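Side project, low priority. Logging it here so it doesn't get lost.
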Amino acid sequence: MEKKKQAKSELPKEYKKGSVDFLGCFIDLSYRVFIPRPETEYWTELAVRELKGHPFLAALDMFSGSGCVGIAVLKNIKNSAVDFCEADPRAVKQIKKNLKINKFGQKRYRVYRSDMFKDLPPAALYDVILANPPYVDYNRIGEVQPSVLEHEPHLALFSGKNGMEAIEEFLAGAKNHLTEKGIIYLEFDAAQVVPIESVLKKEKYSSWKIFRDQFGRERFARIEK
């Protein structure tokens, strides 16, 4: 008997359009990087609102993807400079394109192709690190929409057992790149609150607060060094 071919899922509308708006920024998606989510835009807006009072903000956008988070910081906080850090070479190209599209002066940003902190300057310190890591558990692949699985980069989605691999490595290294009063904004899955708090205690972060997204789910944290 001939095996039926599985129908291909439809291309996401954001890829069809070729771009999205993210806090008033034009984010090109021509390199088919991870599509910015409304939940990410929600916590980024809250972070920007808090950080606007900073006299000068040195920020790091870790797991940058399209660069949407760091670009929103550059656009909405005039006295800011942002480093972008991304392991995927395709995403690095996308970040550079989006920085040009949004017309920021080159002195305000640097783009690093790096597996987390490995290729950043060892002495680099930031007032804030904004991170949207891969956090989907491979065991939950059946819960991921077919269009996401087929069209979006898996590097931006999956992260080992319980989806915690990248988060654990990130939190172990991030404290070494924060200023004395530096903070982290971290996105995660609602099921990861307990393991994340365990990592924060293990890594001896001073304090943190878990926040709910616009849909009422615990989805991001504000963490103090």
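Brief comment: Strands lie at 19-22, 25-28, 57-62, 80-86, 109-113, 126-131, 178-187, 207-212, 218-224.
Revisit when time allows.
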